[in-house]
Structure formats: structure tokens, C-alpha cells
Amino acid sequence: MGFDIELAWRLLPALLQGAGVTLGVFVPCLVLGLPLSIRIAVWRLSTNPIVSGLAWFFAMFFRGVPALILLYMIYNGLATVGFVRNTALWGVFVDPYYCAVIGFTLNHTGFLVELLRGAIQAVPVGVIEASKSLGMSKRKTFFLITLPLAMRYGLSAYMNEVILFVKGTAALGAITLLDLLAVANTAVSTTYDPMTPLLMAAAIYWSMVQLIRFGFGHLETYLNRHQQAVA
Prior knowledge:
It contains twelve helices and no strands. The longest helix is centred in the first third of the chain and has 40 residues, at 5-44. α1 (5-44) packs across α6 (96-121). The protein is mainly α. The protein has one domain: MetI-like fold (Orthogonal Bundle), CATH 1.10.3720.10.
């Protein structure tokens, strides 16, 4: 069975709506995950062994647990816990959308913590010492010197993580959200065409990835504009 252009055209609105659901989870997770990962990465580098150990456990746990299992644990598990059912949290954990945002944010943050930790450690010590010699406080040095340099050093790795993350959202259908892949699978079962809906979904995912690469490419050019000026 080949690619059916007429079927693809009929399915396009539903697939785009599913892509909207995917992006509706993807974007909030990016917005929440980055500041959360910065905070935990700083704790990860703390000289306090308790703080550093807790941050290490957070990163290792959420990096190691598959996103699909994490979604099941949050959506199917937490809503059944007694103290959750008796509080306002029950309204959150019975909603698949909120569960998806929470689960993917934690999973995404777990990977970003280690990425940021390595990028922060890659900042030259001499740069930090120079800022201290100018009388800058430790906090000011971190936000004006260390963090911007670390973000620049880790930009390519961050782009790869974001690309993997957007493809990982294909697990959303497991908790009843009609995301892009769930819509494609439904179309397969109703049209008995296993190729056209999945190829369309793959094309939309590919388009998302290219937009991410395009955006990061422009951001990298902007951050490195001083090097082009010198050249």
C-alpha cells in the first residue's frame, strides 16, 4: 500500500490539531524546565554534600526513568494516593495535560541539570577571577558572566536535547492525550492504511525538528557575532 495523497489531505487538519497538542505540552516544559534546571545545577555544584547529593539524586532519577513510565506513575498513580484525593491536587493529577507537563518537565530538567553542570564547569576560572577582581559579587558574577558563557558553551548540546524532547512527546497518547502520534494511530485503525497517516506524522515531526534547528542556528550566530566582527 503506497502513499495516498487524497487521504493525506483529508487527515492534515486533524494531524495539525494533534501537533498543536504536542506543542501545547512541549513549550511549557521548555519554559519551566530551563530555570528549574539552572537552580538544580547550581545546587549540584554546591560544596554542601547534602544539597549536592539531593541535586545529584534528582538528576539521576529523572534521567534514568523512561518518560513513558514517569507519565504512567504521575497520571495513573498519584491520583490514587489518599492525601492527593483529599486535596486540590487531585484536580491536577486527574487531568492528563497537567500530568504530561509535570512529567515531561521533570524528565527534561533531569537531562538539562547535567548538561548545565558541565557547561558551568567549562567556564574558564580566569574569567571568574577577573570579575571578582573588578569587585563583582558572587551572584552578579554568576548571572552576568558564568551563566551566559555556560549557555553559549552548552548551546549545541541543549539543541540536541530539545530535539530529542520534542520527539519524546510521542508518548503523550499513552495518557489519553490526542497528540500528533495518537491522531495518526487513530487514522491508521480507521482507514486501514498504515503508511499515509504515519508518514504524514513523521513529516510534521521532521518539520518541527527543522524549525528548532533553524532557531538555534540563528541564536548561535547571534551569540557569536563578536567573533565574526573580529574576523
